[in-house]
């Protein structure tokens, strides 16, 4: 009975260790495969939100939309809105990836609404 318990305990520890090792390998490989459009310390995006990899997708999508606009005042308003959304997604030194992904829809809606108002 004792041997079975010890064997079960050893297997449980080994599986837990293997899971931890696998998660660390996933984290390392995701850092190596960063997209080419990662933050470039532009003057548009403040570092307190743009330095988070979780924010890159939203920033990239908004930058693509901003490239097609001529109105600098509207661009500034959009950037301010998106920065506010990203700051709302921060908790301490972490940024919630799911919050950022939800913010993509809000930001695109904001952009479309303001573009229509400009017409």
UniProtKB/TrEMBL annotation:
Species annotation: Drosophila hydei
Residues annotated as signal peptide: 1-18
Keywords: Signal
Name of the molecule in the record: Uncharacterized protein LOC111599433
